[in-house]
Write a structure and sequence with these properties.
The chain is mainly alpha-helical. It has one domain. The chain is built from four helices and no strands. It has helices at 3-16, 31-40, 42-45, 51-66. The longest helix has 16 residues, at 51-66. The termini are close together.
Length: 67
């Protein structure tokens, strides 16, 4: 994944989760916040519109970053 793709995914993540219930430092599209969202984001957000899109996006980014 090149840097521009990561920035686009990060922007998409931030847009999707802008109305979600997250700790204050987890709204940024960092790798740490995406990892946190995968592990704990379902608790208060699983019924929110865009939740599945955010999960898919986080999985994709984290998978690509491991390469």
């Amino acid at each position: 994944m090149n840097f521009m793709h990561y920035l686009n995914y990060r922007s998409d993540y931030e847009r999707i989760v802008s109305g979600f219930v997250l700790p204050e430092d987890k709204y940024q599209g960092t790798i740490d916040s995406m990892q946190w969202f995968l592990e704990k984001g379902h608790t208060a957000n699983r019924f929110r519109k865009g939740f599945d899109d955010a999960i898919e996006l986080c999985h994709h980014v984290l998978k690509e970053m491991k390469k």
